[in-house]
C-alpha cells in the first residue's frame, strides 16, 4: 500500500453531509497521513527521535515535518535532522522555515541549501519569538509567512505548506483578518495548510465552511495531537470540551489508562472527521511513536508491506 497526499479541494469536502456518525470499517479507505517531529537537544533525545522515525517510517506517510524552536533556536539541529532524513530513510521530509531572527539573505540561503540537499517541501511559518518577547520582524527579513512564501517561490518551485488556525491565531485582530492572512499565504504559492491542534471537531468543520466561503480551495489538513499528558495539553491554548476533560480526570498517576484513553479519543476524533469528508491528517507526534502508530492502525493504515501475498 502506498500513500500519496490527496490534494482534494474544499469543494469536494463541501459536498459531504455534515456530522455523520462513525463510518463502518468495511469499504472505508485508510486516510493519507503525515507526521511532525522536533529536533533533539541531547544525545538521549536523538536516540528517541530516530527510534520514533524508524517506527513510523513503516506506515509510509505522505511526508514528515521537522520543527524549529522559538526564535529559530533549533535551526542547525533542524537542518541536520532533515538532511539525515533524506540520506538515511525513505521518507519525504518537509523542513520548517521561519521569519524570526534572520535576514532575507540568510533565509534564502537556508532554502537553497535544502533544495540542493533534495528537500523540496517547506513548511513556511512566521515563527514564534523567544519566550516573553513580542514578535518583531527583522528589519532586513521577511515580515510575515505570506512574504516568506512569495520569497521561497522565487528561489525554486518548492511545495509549500502553511499554518491555519481554526480557533484564530492569538495575535489576529479578528477571525476575518486571520482568514485573509491564510488566503494571502495560499495565493502567494502555498499548496496546502495544516491546522494548529484542536480537540473539538465542530470548530474545525465550521472553519472549513468559512474558508470555502472566502474562496479558499486548497486542502486544509487537520493537525491531530493525541493527549498523553492532559495537564500539558491544556496549556497549548486549544479549546478542550468538558467531556474530554472529564475522561482524563483522575488519571494523572495512571499512565497505562491514559495511553489507552488517548488512543481511543484521538482515533474517534479522526474517524468522525473521515465521516465528514476529511481524508488527510497530520499528527503531532511529540517524538513518541507508539500512540500515533496505534491510532494509524485503528484507522486502517498499515505498514507498506503488510499483508503482501506472493503469487
Molecular structure report:
Helices cover 41% and strands 13% of the residues. With 311 residues, it is an alpha/beta fold. The chain has a single domain (26-298), classed as Alpha-Beta Barrel (TIM Barrel), CATH 3.20.20. Strands 7-6-5-4-3-2-1-9-8 form a nine-stranded parallel sheet, covered by helices on one side. Strand 1, helix 2 (43-57) and strand 2 form a beta-alpha-beta unit. Helix 5 (145-155) packs parallel to helix 6. The longest helix has 21 residues, at 255-275.
H/E order of the elements?
HEHEHEHEHEHEHEEHHHEH
CATH architecture name: Alpha-Beta Barrel
Number of domains: 1
Class computed from helices, strands and strand pairing: alpha/beta
Number of DSSP strands? Answer: 9
Strand order of the largest sheet: 7-6-5-4-3-2-1-9-8
CATH class equals: Alpha Beta
Indicate the mean pLDDT: 87
Compute the number of helices: 11
Major beta sheet, specifics? 9 strands, parallel
Kindly report how far apart the N and C termini lie.
17 Å
Rg, nearest Å? 19 Å
**What share of the residues does DSSP label as strand, in percent?**
5-15%
The percent range for helix content is: 40-55%
The CATH topology assignment is: TIM Barrel
Uncertain regions spanning at least 5 consecutive residues: 1-8, 306-311
Amino acid at each position: 500500500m502506498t500513500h500519496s497526499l490527496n490534494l482534494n479541494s474544499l469543494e469536494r469536502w463541501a459536498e459531504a453531509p455534515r456530522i455523520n456518525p462513525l463510518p463502518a470499517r468495511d469499504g472505508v479507505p485508510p486516510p493519507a497521513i503525515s507526521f511532525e517531529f522536533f529536533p533533539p537537544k541531547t544525545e538521549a533525545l536523538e536516540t528517541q527521535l530516530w527510534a520514533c522515525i524508524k517506527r513510523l517510517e513503516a506506515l509510509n506517510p505522505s511526508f514528515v515535518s521537522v520543527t524549529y524552536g522559538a526564535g529559530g533556536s533549533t535551526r542547525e539541529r533542524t537542518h541536520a535532522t532533515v538532511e539525515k532524513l533524506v540520506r538515511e530513510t525513505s521518507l519525504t521530509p518537509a523542513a520548517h522555515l521561519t521569519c524570526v531572527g534572520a535576514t532575507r539573505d540568510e533565509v534564502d540561503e537556508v532554502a537553497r541549501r535544502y533544495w540542493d540537499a533534495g528537500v523540496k517541501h517547506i513548511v513556511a511559518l512566521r515563527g514564534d519569538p523567544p519566550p516573553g518577547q513580542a514578535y518583531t520582524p527583522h528589519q532586513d527579513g521577511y515580515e510575515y509567512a505570506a512574504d516568506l512564501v512569495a520569497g521561497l517561490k522565487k528561489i525554486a518551485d518548492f511545495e509549500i505548506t502553511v499554518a491555519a488556525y481554526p480557533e484564530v491565531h492569538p495575535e489576529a485582530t479578528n477571525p476575518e483578518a486571520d482568514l485573509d492572512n491564510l488566503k494571502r499565504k495560499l495565493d502567494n504559492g502555498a499548496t496546502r495548510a495544516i491546522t494548529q491542534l484542536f480537540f473539538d471537531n465542530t470548530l474545525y468543520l465550521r472553519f472549513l465552511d468559512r474558508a470555502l466561503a472566502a474562496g479558499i480551495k486548497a486542502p486544509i489538513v487537520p493537525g491531530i495531537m493525541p493527549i498523553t499528558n492532559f495537564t500539558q495539553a491544556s496549556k497549548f491554548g486549544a479549546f478542550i470540551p468538558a467531556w474530554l476533560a472529564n475522561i482524563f480526570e483522575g488519571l494523572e498517576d495512571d499512565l497505562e489508562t491514559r495511553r489507552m484513553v488517548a488512543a481511543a479519543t484521538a482515533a474517534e476524533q479522526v474517524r468522525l472527521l473521515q465521516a465528514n469528508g476529511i481524508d488527510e491528517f497530520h499528527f503531532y507526534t511529540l517524538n513518541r511513536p507508539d500512540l500515533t502508530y496505534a491510532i494509524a492502525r485503528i484507522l486502517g493504515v498499515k505498514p507498506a508491506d503488510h499483508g503482501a501475498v506472493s503469487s
